[in-house]
Amino acid sequence: MMSSNSGSFDSNNGPSLNDLGFGPFFMSQLDMIELETLTPFRISEIQRSIVVGLGDGGTRPLRTPHKVPTSAFAVGDWVLADEGDQITRRLDPRSELKRRGAGTDVSEQLMAANIDSLLIVTSCNEDFNLARIERFLALAKDAEVTPVVVLTKVDLCDNADRYISDAGDLMDELDVIGVNAKSPDALDALSPWCGKAQTLALVGSSGVGKTTLLNGLTGRQEATAAIRENDAKGRHTTTYRSLHPALGGAWVIDTPGIRALRLHEKSTGIEQVFDDIFELATQCKFNDCKHESEPKCAVQAAIASGELEAERLERWRKLEREDNRNTETIAQSRKRSKEFGKMVKSVMTDSYARKGRTK
């Protein structure tokens, strides 16, 4: 029910649907019956068995449909719920961050939905890792959201400009912001991505300053944990994903610390992040050039001239190999599932046939 004047649903307790980002894209997915009988909520928190929805009547726990796990939803999702607070439908998202599950699992893990910008947070110390930043950039490009690299602890670093330059060289027109997360100036630097009803997500390793940034953006006072002195690596302070209102009218999705990011299935973002290598590859003599020792290889020529770093080529190769393995593994898993389904159907058909013959 789009109107929230009935029952205990008090429209004065929470932000409006427009403030939450419920625009024409989502409204167009509702039919007249849903408009009259169901209520839209934006998912603001997901734990192992808890889904919390945020609407113009405030927050409330929502029940997932029978046998549907909470992992089927993402923080930032828009869902419809009935009068019993049971989710009836997940609306198609405008954007969706997802990665491959841990271990040998080929399933995808939803990280966040309906975001406009992905803030890739890393610090100017031992945590700074170009390969990890490139993975997050590919993640953002896969989701068709704007990536922004936020380098923290610039006040504790003597050569912050080098970190900013190295990150900026990873992709054309990439915004790289160096901040002291504890300074009010950090909020001003991030204001272009914090407009009213805009949603940004924070990703990065533990201890890089995500919680400190979140505190500044939202005005809250969440506890932070210091990094370990022996290796400059952080400790987890965020244990689940959650949506928070920012001071400028934006919404911020905080995520647990991520050190190992596995891209899911065939990533189109890799080509966008490494467009310099793909462009050079078109100039190679052979279409199937491996960029190793082939004659007239434009990629190797660029490395020899200093135009391209050999380390960047190796990072691209590693991501491409992983991406190809993901695609093959997922294809094999789907093939096995399809074959198993056919086998089950065949067994059931035979069983029914035998029962018919014995009657």
From TrEMBL:
GO CC, any one term: cytoplasm
Coiled coil stretches, renumbered: none
MF (Gene Ontology): GTP binding; GTPase activity; metal ion binding; rRNA binding
Cofactor annotation: Zn(2+)
The EC number(s) this enzyme carries: 3.6.1.-
Record note on cofactor: Binds 1 zinc ion per subunit.
Pfam families, A to Z: RsgA_GTPase
InterPro entries xref list: G_CP_dom (IPR030378), P-loop_NTPase (IPR027417), Ribosome_biogen_GTPase_RsgA (IPR004881), RsgA_GTPase_dom (IPR010914)
PROSITE patterns: ENGC_GTPASE, G_CP
Annotated EngC GTPase domain residues: 113-259
UniProt keywords, alphabetically: Cytoplasm, GTP-binding, Hydrolase, Metal-binding, Nucleotide-binding, Ribosome biogenesis, RNA-binding, rRNA-binding, Zinc
NCBIfam families per UniProt: ribosome small subunit-dependent GTPase A
Assembly notes: Monomer. Associates with 30S ribosomal subunit, binds 16S rRNA.
Family assignment from sequence similarity: Belongs to the TRAFAC class YlqF/YawG GTPase family. RsgA subfamily.
Protein name as annotated: Small ribosomal subunit biogenesis GTPase RsgA
Source organism: Cohaesibacter gelatinilyticus
